[in-house]
């Protein structure tokens, strides 16, 4: 039912080792607020719908996932309201699927999603930063704030992806490093002059906004880069 569950000043941390489903009886996810964090382990499956999860204490993720665990979220809002650098959702050997959902953080030096050896699916979802290693990501019609950082054989396949950045940020909108791959259609940035950097990685993307001439590229000779079927000029690494 709508309402606030558990104390905002002393939120619970729940360890989940069995399958769990929580569904809010409302279409407004913020009407059902759970002040808590979840640690998923030992193959647990967590299904969440029509609710918000908020954790405001230091030195813990709002959701942490290990050992072949799965998260299926629809119409949910996950937030990490502490000022520490812990990411909102961390996964290692995990599967995450988020549809019509939002992940927010207070400290912009952290990330909404930090994944290793995992699989990610986003659809109609807005998150604040993405960091992956050894992770395959599929993204549709979604927004990622600030930057996307792919490392160590990560894959990003997308359609209709926006990177919500600005002209003053000191880091690139997109990094692909160490045998990572990016492929997709319709990449937009809210910055008028974005930067994309690759090292020993591949990119094949069609349809950019802003236009290609407004994008600064940095990549090495070991990277294969095609932007609208053309290899762009690189400023080097």
Describe the model:
The chain is 0% helix and 58% strand. With 237 residues, it is mainly β. The protein has one domain. The chain has a 21-stranded parallel sheet that branches. It is elongated, with a radius of gyration of 18 Å. The mean pLDDT is 95.
* Rg over alpha carbons: 18 Å
Report the span from N to C terminus: 53 Å
> Uncertain spans, ≥5 residues at pLDDT below 50?
none
Number of helical elements: 0
Can you count the beta strands?
Answer: 21
Calculate the mean pLDDT score and round it: 95
Largest sheet: 21 strands, parallel
**Morphology:** elongated
**What is the succession of H and E elements?**
EEEEEEEEEEEEEEEEEEEEE
Comma- or semicolon-separated keywords:
single chain; 237 residues; mainly beta; 21-stranded parallel beta sheet; 58% strand
Brief summary:
It contains no helices and 21 strands. The protein is an all-beta fold.
Layout of helices and strands:
Elements: E1 3-5, E2 12-16, E3 20-23, E4 32-40, E5 45-55, E6 63-80, E7 89-99, E8 102-105, E9 113-116, E10 119-123, E11 126-127, E12 130-133, E13 136-145, E14 148-151, E15 155-164, E16 174-177, E17 181-189, E18 195-199, E19 202-209, E20 216-219, E21 224-227
Parallel strand pairs: 1-4, 2-4, 3-5, 4-5, 4-6, 5-6, 6-7, 6-8, 7-9, 7-10, 8-11, 9-12, 10-13, 11-13, 12-14, 13-15, 14-16, 15-17, 16-18, 17-19, 18-20, 19-21
């Amino acid at each position: 039912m709508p309402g606030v569950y558990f104390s905002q000043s002393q939120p619970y941390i729940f360890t989940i080792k069995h399958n769990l489903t929580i569904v809010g009886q409302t279409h407004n996810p913020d009407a059902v607020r759970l002040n808590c964090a979840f640690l998923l382990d030992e193959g647990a499956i967590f299904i969440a719908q029509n609710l918000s999860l908020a954790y405001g204490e230091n030195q813990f993720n709002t959701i942490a996932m290990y050992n072949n665990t799965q998260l299926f979220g629809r119409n949910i809002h996950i937030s990490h309201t502490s000022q520490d650098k812990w990411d909102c959702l961390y996964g290692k050997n995990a599967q995450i699927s988020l549809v019509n959902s939002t992940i927010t953080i207070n400290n912009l030096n952290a990330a909404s999603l930090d994944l290793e050896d995992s699989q990610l699916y986003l659809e109609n979802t807005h998150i604040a930063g993405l960091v992956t290693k050894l992770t395959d990501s599929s993204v549709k019609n979604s927004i990622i704030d600030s930057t996307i950082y792919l490392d160590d054989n990560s894959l990003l396949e997308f359609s209709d992806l926006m990177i919500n950045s600005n002209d003053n940020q000191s880091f690139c909108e997109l990094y692909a490093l160490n045998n990572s791959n990016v492929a997709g259609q319709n990449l937009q940035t809210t910055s008028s002059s974005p930067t994309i950097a690759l090292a020993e990685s591949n990119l094949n993307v069609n349809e950019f906004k802003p236009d290609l001439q407004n994008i600064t590229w940095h990549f090495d000779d070991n990277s294969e880069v095609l932007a609208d079927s053309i290899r762009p000029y690189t400023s080097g690494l």
